[in-house]
């Protein structure tokens, strides 16, 4: 009896032991395969990059043959390469780390080649990155258990603090202009490569999915912490008047994109003239700016845009798909031409509407510094609150009965109607809510700029807003914000490349859609 039990146990343990040994041997082989690529990346990071001193000065971090006197004191993109080379030794990190290395090395090698300088560290780092991508394997991310509240709150606070650092570093990467940093464009693109690798590594280990589940379970706490972190942006390296202006402009377009996300992402109604509602809110607020306080002007702009949204939505009840896109495109073009011709003397025509006063609160103008905070901080804070309100509207509508009706219409309008959904009323309501949010954003836009002209509301702006919704993720709450931020930060930072700016911008969009076809924040 005993011998039989022992034999059976031994017979079971034998295959299990052999399986464990084979698994360990496979893991050890994979670990060895990652070493050559990681070594090449580290060698490339610690090698000279530019062969000569460029006219604009030494290439970043003294990485030239003439000024390479501190090979181990690396900063900037070379420090990123060192970090990625070390991270590539981890089991799941080789592939995303290699992708980041390829982006960084290619950007700087190509930049130096365009300046007529030979890169020595670039080809070595490129070879290491390619080897890591080739040797790395895509494995399913592990699932981490959700901890108790004592761990959740510090984890979410740390995650949002890291997000604040990432946003600030992205805005400030490469400086503000080519005059202050002739290599700024390359440094910005290289930092994007590092950010992509960092997020890829966190995703490979299941950290991003874990944090997303935590934020969803503790939504109220997450929103409060996220708002607090957003308000702390002026205290970071991005706390300058220039970046506050850029960030507030992004906020205006993000709120507008959230309204479009209701129309396109939830209801599935393709709107190619949506920027007209932004213009209606802006022109309405501009005409009332000298006679009524800003809250009244903003409310009037939102109401006017919402009513015209109903006017546009009503004739579209019997059209769908491409025909709906043509109708909305026609509406946007009609608005643009009417504003250009100063219809009714309300738009200023070619002269625009200048002299719009800034928003004031208790005698404090929003375009002035507030203590140690930079000029434009109040506009930035206002747009943060506006975007937060728009996101709250979208989140509540998405999970409401109306939101479910929109999703049903988006999936199949005929089936939705057969199931008892009042499709006509739901479609008009989608246009109403989306246009109202755009009108409110337009009112803030007018007071922030101080002048409103028809040039700001042409067809290309509608396409950009639609691209922001699609790239960010249709129907998702943070998708429109992420998409709008990307589409308005990239052109601003890529000005360093002058003639190549639009080409690089388009290439970035193609890569995003190829790698994330459902958007950066898919539902």
UniProtKB/TrEMBL annotation:
Top-level taxon: Bacteria
Membrane topology of this protein: Multi-pass membrane protein
InterPro entries: ABC_transp_permease, LivM-like
One cellular-component annotation, GO: plasma membrane
An MF annotation (GO) of this entry: branched-chain amino acid transmembrane transporter activity
PANTHER family linked: HIGH-AFFINITY BRANCHED-CHAIN AMINO ACID TRANSPORT PROTEIN BRAE, HIGH-AFFINITY BRANCHED-CHAIN AMINO ACID TRANSPORT SYSTEM PERMEASE
Name of this protein: Branched-chain amino acid ABC transporter permease
Organism name: [Actinomadura] parvosata subsp. kistnae
Upper taxonomic lineage: Bacteria, Bacillati, Actinomycetota, Actinomycetes, Streptosporangiales
């Amino acid at each position: 009896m005993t011998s039989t039990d022992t034999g059976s146990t031994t017979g079971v343990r034998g295959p299990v032991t052999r399986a464990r040994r084979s698994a360990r041997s496979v893991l050890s082989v994979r670990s060895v395969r990652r070493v050559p690529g990681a070594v090449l990346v580290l060698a490339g990071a610690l090698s000279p990059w530019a062969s000569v001193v460029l006219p604009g000065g030494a290439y970043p971090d003294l990485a030239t043959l003439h000024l390479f006197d501190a090979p181990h004191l690396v900063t900037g993109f070379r420090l990123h390469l060192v970090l990625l080379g070390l991270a590539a030794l981890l089991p799941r990190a080789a592939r995303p780390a290699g992708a980041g290395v390829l982006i960084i090395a290619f950007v700087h090698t190509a930049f130096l080649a365009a300046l007529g300088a030979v890169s020595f560290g670039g080809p070595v780092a490129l070879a290491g990155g390619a080897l890591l991508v080739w040797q790395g394997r895509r494995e399913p991310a592990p699932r981490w258990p959700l901890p108790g509240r004592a761990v959740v709150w510090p984890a979410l606070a740390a995650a949002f603090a890291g997000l604040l650092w990432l946003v600030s570093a992205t805005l400030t990467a490469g400086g503000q202009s080519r005059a202050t940093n002739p290599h700024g464009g390359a440094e910005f693109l290289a930092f994007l490569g590092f950010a992509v690798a960092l997020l890829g590594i966190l995703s490979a280990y299941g950290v991003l999915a874990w944090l997303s589940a935590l934020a969803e379970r503790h939504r109220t706490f997450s929103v409060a912490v996220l708002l607090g972190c957003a308000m702390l942006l002026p205290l970071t390296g991005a706390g300058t008047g220039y970046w506050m202006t850029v960030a507030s402009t992004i906020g205006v377009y993000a709120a507008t994109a959230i309204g479009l996300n209701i129309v396109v992402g939830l209801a599935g109604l393709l709107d190619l003239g949506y920027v007209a509602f932004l213009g209606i809110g802006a022109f309405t607020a501009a005409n009332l700016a000298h006679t009524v306080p800003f809250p009244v002007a903003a409310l009037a702009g939102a109401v006017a845009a919402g009513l015209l949204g109903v006017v546009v939505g009503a004739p579209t009840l019997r059209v769908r798909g491409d025909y709906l896109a043509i109708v909305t495109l026609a509406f946007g073009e009609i608005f643009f031409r009417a504003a250009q011709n100063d219809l009714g003397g309300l738009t200023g025509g070619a002269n625009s509407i200048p002299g719009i006063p800034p928003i004031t609160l208790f005698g404090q103008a929003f375009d002035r510094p507030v203590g140690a905070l930079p000029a434009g901080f109040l506009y930035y804070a206002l747009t943060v609150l506006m975007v937060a309100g728009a996101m709250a509207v979208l989140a509540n509508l998405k999970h409401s009965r109306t939101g479910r009706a929109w999703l049903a219409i988006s999936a199949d309008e005929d089936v939705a109607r057969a199931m008892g959904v009042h499709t006509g009323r739901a479609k008009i309501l989608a246009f109403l809510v989306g246009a109202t949010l755009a009108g409110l954003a337009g009112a803030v836009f007018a007071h922030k700029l101080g002048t409103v002209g028809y040039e700001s509301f042409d067809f290309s702006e509608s396409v950009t807003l639609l691209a922001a919704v699609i790239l960010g993720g249709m129907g998702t709450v943070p998708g429109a914000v992420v998409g709008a931020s990307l589409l308005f930060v990239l052109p601003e930072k890529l000005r360093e490349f002058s003639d190549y700016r639009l080409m690089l911008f388009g290439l970035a969009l193609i890569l995003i859609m190829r790698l994330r076809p459902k958007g950066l924040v898919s539902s």
